[in-house]
Amino acid sequence: MVGMEGTGCGALLRELQQIWAEVGESEGEKSKVLSEIERECLEVYRRKVDDANRTRVQLHQSVATKEAEVALLMATLGEHKLYLKKDKGYVSLKEQLAAVTPVLDDLKCKKEERIKQYYDIRSQIEKIRSELSEHNDKGDHVNSPAADEHDLSTRKLNSYQAQLSTLQKDKSDRLHKVLKYVNEVHSLCGVLGIDFAKTVNGIHPSLHQNGVEQSRNISNSTLEGLASTISNLKAERKSRIDKMRDTMESLCHLWKLMDSSEVEKRQFSKVISILISPEEGITSAGVLSQETIEKMEAEVERLTELKTKRLKEIVTKRRAELEDICKNAHIEPDLSTAPEQTNALIDSGTIDPSELLANIESQIVKAKEESLSRKDIMDRINKWIAACDEEAWLEEYNQDSKRYSSGRGAHVNLRRAEKARILVTKIPAMMDNLINRTFAWENARNKPFLYDGGRLVSVLEEYRLNRKQKEEEKRRYRDQKKLESILLAEKEAIFGSKPSPKRASSLTRKTNGYRSNGSSNGLMTPTPRRSSLGSATPELSTPRSYTSRYNRYFGDSRRLSVSQLNFGDDSLSTFTSISGSEPESPSMG
């Protein structure tokens, strides 16, 4: 109560005592009222003290909570700065709360900033990792901020930044390499005429996306795919260059061979200038495209067909020349290059016309060489045939009853007959010489001397045997004429007159059994004629006299089917008509 005397309560208490004095309240009542007043005051004070205590406790809790938050945030953020506190005996709780609140707010701001930094760095890291991964996933794989709130220290942030810096450098290097590879693929595809978009899409679709915000996949598989594609494209480029160079070489050869015009060459002038450059220097778009190669191949095919046509004409011409040489030399041409066979081979493509032409050229050279080696014998054959022709003419001339008339040209025929008689006497020597030289030729070359497919020696031997048979028939005819003359003389002596020609002819037939060949003088005149040596003759063997002396390469048992001169056919028919029998085949054992 003492404390209330200096306040408004003391004034009120004095005023109450004055009232009690005037009223005359008893001391008991006064004490009772004052006790109630004191109790009510205590209750009011108690409430106020309780309220003050609650406020103090709340302040203590607030300060402790905030200080704990500050400590946690400092630990989370890795802050090592100490916030100094004054002695609690001199600093009220409100002052402490007022001091810690700005610190806490500052730390919370730092935490939010740190979380944002973490999120940005982690986002970049995850994005780069996604680009480096085998599959370019676009999903957000960044952890939520709450996942890393327990550790937002600067040390960890620096670690993420270092990791990000490493990934960014790796990304930069890979991106540079990818762009380099993509540009190289684009250049190669342009040169080869290949679809660039289809090529890179086969590696990864992101490589052909032109959006600025679109990230390209720069994973190991993408780099390996680009490197492999570049290697394949370079191999294809080399293959096409080699193919085009071979085709161009063939094309230039055909141009030169076919004497092509500059207009035909001009369409490939760019290709020619490109192909002489090194591989790395070929950058013109489409110059190595499949279309260009097909165009060159089509031109080569066209010129090859034209070349084949012309070569076919040349082959035919050269074959005709070969046949002429063989015909003049009486040699059988090689049937492997016959026109009907060569045309079929060229049309079917079985043989190269150039090879066939070279083969014919070789045959022409051989035919000329053989013709030259046969020249001496061929000249003697021609002389022999000419002598046989003169012999045939002489026999016909001798059968002419008017050969001694004084008609025009009679003296010319007389001179020719004199020369023919001299020439005919040389035929046996010509035969022997020709046979000897033929054997020498065969021995020197180890092959038979063929004349139009038949062996010449066999033909000559047969001719000689036939000639000997002819001579024998002539001798018999002369003996018969002598016998006829004796018989006629005897008849004249008996009958005293010459019998008529008809009777004499009948007498001759009855006596000798010979038939006249229809000539005016009844003479048999063998007439060897020149004809082809290609007619069929019986198989003949070389006579032993010549076999033992000359022919070491063709034995007695070897028989050849030969073609002979058709000489003496008329003579042999005359002999047959006279003798009434066929001459035996001149077969020598």
Automatic annotation (TrEMBL):
Location of region: Disordered: 497-549
Cell compartments where the protein resides: Cytoplasm; Nucleus
Species the sequence originates in: Aegilops tauschii subsp. strangulata
Superkingdom of source: Eukaryota
Biased composition (Polar residues): 503-549
UniProt-recorded name of the protein: 65-kDa microtubule-associated protein 6
Major localization listed first in the record, in broad terms: cytoplasm
Lineage: Eukaryota, Viridiplantae, Streptophyta, Embryophyta, Tracheophyta
GO cellular component term of the entry, any: microtubule
